[in-house]
């Protein structure tokens, strides 16, 4: 039997989180091999993913350190303000950045992120992508992890990092216990061109049926103003909206937006998917670590899902790079326990906060609406509380890994 191909870590899952992790590790001298069943050519095709992501400013600083930000030049739209309201009624809460301050986040289309990551991986000799491949067997022992691919290729490393997303077969096979439930909501996502400029403002409007968000994108090549939308409806209504033609769907969008951006036109594929919550309290086991949606999946109410996974990337990179400098086994239980302590609490608190917001703003009735508007007004009037929420939006709260502060590990 031929010797396995060895690296410092193995990464199962070549999505946005898995590839970013490989690049962050490579930037600091650690090698990785990514395995993924998806064909890379498919994942960067224009119709594959119509989503866009709000990248928190702290995460953007990590992108600058590891060389992704330059590849996104001209494709990211800074969010300078967020306007929050309850069904568009008075009592609006505004988060606005000061002149010269960093933005609250940067909106980037997921396809642009995938293209930037692909190009960066090509130029990173320490990061290797094996895709599309199928893992036929996985073996974990006291010395490391070995993956055997369907073609017989064997890959070996001291540590396996699982970045497979919400439905992670490796996580489930490894025995991690997941708490999960459905919100009985569907999220409809896409992008529109619109009549009025967005002014770098994101709008979050809470309706009893679910939140509705308009998120600023860069103008297209024809100079048309564009925004992404995330529209949450009940699971009963989801199929009916999905059957609407583009004209009827756009009319409903304009109605829900309340004329904020004028006339609209769909400019990206519409996608609809069910919303649910899942969380693993334990994110490490014998030589296996969870990152991103394999560890936690939250409601898109605050746009923090991808950012939470990229915070995992920053923390795990710091733990592994410092462990390697000390000559430690990268699969050592004591080393991985540091990652568990660092990320376990933050993941739990953000997950519970988004779950609570989802339930609070979903309560129908005038009394509940009045209470919510009073709460929004209170935050608007209290600078310290408002600052707390802005720091959370930027990803600058808590014990930050060095990468999220814009520094090398």
Provide structural commentary.
The protein is of the alpha/beta class. Helices cover 34% and strands 29% of the residues. It is built from 11 helices and 22 strands. It has helices at residues 16-27, 40-43, 57-66, 110-122, 169-173, 238-243, 246-257, 305-325, 333-361, 366-381, 383-394, and strands spanning 5-6, 9-12, 32-35, 52-56, 77-79, 81-86, 93-96, 105-109, 127-130, 135-141, 144-149, 154-157, 160-162, 179-194, 201-207, 210-217, 225-234, 264-266, 271-279, 284-285, 288-290, 296-297. The strands form 4 sheets. Strands 6, 7, 14, 15, 16, 17, 18, 19 and 22 form a 9-stranded mixed beta sheet that branches. Helix 1 (16-27) packs parallel to helix 8 (305-325). The longest helix is centred in the C-terminal third of the chain and has 29 residues, at 333-361. The radius of gyration is 21 Å and the shape is globular. The two termini are 38 Å apart. The model has no long low-confidence stretch (mean pLDDT 89).
